[in-house]
Write the structure tokens for this entry.
Amino acid sequence: MSKIKGLQCKECKKSYPTVALHVCEFCFGPLEVAYDYDYIRAHISKEKIVSGPKSLWRYKDLLPIVGEPTVGLSGGFTPLIHAKNLGRRLGLDELYIKNDTVNSPTLSFKDRVVAVALTRAKELGFDTVACASTGNLANSVSAHAAAAGLQCFVFIPYDLEAGKILGNLIYKPTVVAVNGTYDDVNRLCSEVAGEFPWAFVNINIRPYYAEGSKTLAYETAEQLGWETPDHVVVPIASGSLLTKISKGFHEFEQMGFIGKVTTRIHGAQAEGCSPVAAAFKEDRAFIRPVKPKTIAKSLAIGNPADGFYALKTTRESNGVIEHATDEEVVEGMMLLAQTEGIFAETAGGVTIAVLKKLAKQGVFAKNSRVVAYITGNGLKTQEAVVPHVGVPWQIQPKLTSFQEALKAAGGKSVNKE
Ligand SMILES: *Cc1c(COP(=O)(O)O)cnc(C)c1O
């Protein structure tokens, strides 16, 4: 008996063994991990979770590994902050920020999925790991591979932010900058994965990788006192995170940890790469791929692998998918920083901008409980805000020099102008 039954096609339900495989050989549908929930229910409890490690591994019983975790032991269990200042601005009494800008070790939610993917890759006997990345995934794979002593190749679009390129090189993986978009990188990597016996975390071992995102839902429910929020706002790149947040809540319901899930799941994209938002608005069931052009590079996937499922999940939960312009993204980053003291990357700006739009549209009741997922750190996307944040006061090392500058500013700090 074991908690994992195998892999299963999401479409035709055909079963596969738990190997490195992600596409159904018969209908080309995506494969997902199939669990024996009766077995898990008999082995899991709230008490066991609460007394577990303060990391994503407290939910190990619901994650697709067979043995003990070996990679990424510090990831997850990030703060859920009651955002009273931002909530006041938006007319929301119960707004929460799930703050994965401080996730460990590489400051984005990708440390969750990579911890699971690399633990599983080691279980499957791989000695080389790789990924196709919009930025954060490569950072996380590089760091975890260094610590785990695995050979590592990361493939990225050539035009990523300096912080994200450095955030690979420092760990000394092989960094391959591809002259193309993420979608070109991903297509190339599918071919490379066919040629080399490597664990591509978001290709051949994607079914395991994707499950790591569920921990964002588990943590949210636990941190809310074993309750679900009324609304969540989730950024969409491939669409995997959004679908797995929904799955996480529903699994907790199935385990009897929380009541019936009625959470409305809302999606956020950047206007310059909004194929899922466009399908939502035009009431289409299929995604029309686009060529990305946005400062939100971590979300710049023009042909999202799980876009169809993100759309379906959102609709089934009675949610909305909105997009935000690059200008609104920068405003969102500054608003979050200046109300809550959280410096998020551009993807966080997308989430806050869409949160603001939905609040304005009256989607939330004043007292409803809303959680916004802030998935990456602003120090990695400095280029986006540098032109907008002003410069320091320049003074001489003399008290009089400071006094003059203060007087010129009307005797106040700039945030009280
Ligand atoms: C990868 C990423 C996402 C979205 O991930 P998907 O699962 O591909 O939709 C969101 N935010 C940040 C910062 C990311 O790096």
The radius of gyration is 21 Å.
